[in-house]
Amino acid sequence: MAVKSSVLPGRILLAFVAAYILLPVAATLLYSLATVWRSEMLPEGYTLSHWAKSFIDQRFVSVLLRTLGLAVVVSFVTLALLLPAVWWQRVRNPKIGIALQMLAAVPFALPTLIIGLGLLTLTGDYLPQAQGTVWLLGLGHVALAFPFAYWALDNAMAAANVRALSEAASTCGASPFATLIRVILPNVGPGIAMAGIMAFGTSFNELVLTQLLVGSRYETVQLYALNMLKGADADYNLLAVMTVINFTITLVLSIAMVSLNGRTANASLPKKAKS
Q1: Which residues contact 182 (CB under 8 A, 6 or more apart)?
Q2: CA 77 – CA 100 distance, rounded (Å)
Q3: What is the model's pTM?
Q4: Nearest 5°: CA angle at 255, between 181 and 211?
Q5: Which residues form the ABC transmembrane type-1 domain (predicted)?
Q6: How many whole angstroms separate alpha carbon 146 and alpha carbon 79?
Q7: Distance CA 203, CA 140 (A)
Q8: What sign has the CA pseudo-torsion 260, 264, 267, 270?
Q9: Is residue 132 helix, strand or coil?
Q10: Looking at residue 197, what DSSP letter applies?
Q11: Please, are residues 104 and 148 in contact by the beta-carbon 8 Å criterion?
Q12: Of 155, 140, 158, 258, which is closest to residue 203 (Cα–Cα)?
């Protein structure tokens, strides 16, 4: 009975938190399905026409695909830069870990607006043709995703003891590249997946840097929502559809990260502890 009484407050708190998060999303979903919704508690009718209209609307589809494509590219670029660096830090040169940790702290120490202004100032002085391009935007998103991906990879490599794995592979005659591809990557798979998901989520939900660096020249999901809200003739049903899609993608990413984190933590436990 004591155990049940101690669990009950936690469940009640969890229910309140879930309601706090899910009720606005449920209302948005209902609005995206509503025919008319004025003063009643629930819509007067339901329809899928807003969803059908969304996926034949060229701007809507372009914005969604553009944002997804950018997030995928940011994920791959972030992993391509960090995987060799974190492995080298763990195996060959631990001193570069200080530099990597300092770089990972920058997005938290500086506001996103300052990072964007710094990129504009730097490119304005040395590479003005890069301003307003998707390449500069991608670079900014990689910088923002850097700390999340770095810590995910670093923790995964620490749990896998990549130093011992690399020494064993070297003893067998494997080159550094072969060691990284054939030995390290299979052993830190959940960490790599988590780092990629976090980079994807950071890029997909970024607004301030996107608005500052490219504006409406490269409209993403977040800019689309902002521009719709500012428009005098905004179609709020389409905006509701986009909001539900955005939430669903973010929720799936969150669930995937929790699952991967659980696998990584379980894999790092000693066998006796697991049993």
Answers
A1: 169, 174
A2: 16
A3: 0.84
A4: 85
A5: 64-257
A6: 9
A7: 9
A8: negative
A9: coil
A10: H
A11: no
A12: 140
Residue type at 145 in one-letter notation: A
Distances from the Cα of 26 to the Cαs of 100, 151, 180, 238, 268, in angstroms?
Answer: 41, 34, 45, 15, 38
Q: Are the C-beta atoms of 35 and 45 separated by less than 8 Å?
A: yes
The DSSP element (H or E) to which 31 belongs, if any, is helix 2-33
Closest by CA position to 115, among listed 97, 141, 148, 134: 141
Q: Is 237 left (phi over 0), alpha (psi -120 to 50) or beta?
A: alpha
Q: How many residues does the chain have?
A: 275
Q: Measured between alpha carbons, how far is residue 74 from residues 138, 255, 271 in Å?
A: 6, 20, 37
- 235: its two tokens: 């179609």
Q: By C-alpha distance, which of 204, 201, 228 is closest to 216?
A: 228
Cβ neighbours around 39 below 10 Å, total: 4
Q: Which two tokens stand for residue 119?
A: 């990129």
pLDDT in tens for each of the 275 residues of the chain? Answer: 444 556 677 788 888 887 888 888 888 888 888 888 877 778 888 889 999 999 999 989 999 999 999 999 999 999 999 999 998 898 888 888 888 889 888 888 888 989 999 999 999 889 899 888 999 999 999 999 999 999 999 988 988 888 898 888 888 888 888 888 888 888 888 889 889 999 999 999 999 999 999 887 888 999 988 888 887 677 888 889 998 999 898 888 888 877 776 665 555 544 444 44
Report phi then psi at 267, rounded to 5: -70, -30
Write the DSSP assignment of 145-159 as a string of letters: HHHHHHHHHHHHHHH
Question: Which helix (DSSP H) or strand (DSSP E) does residue 90 occupy?
Answer: helix 58-91
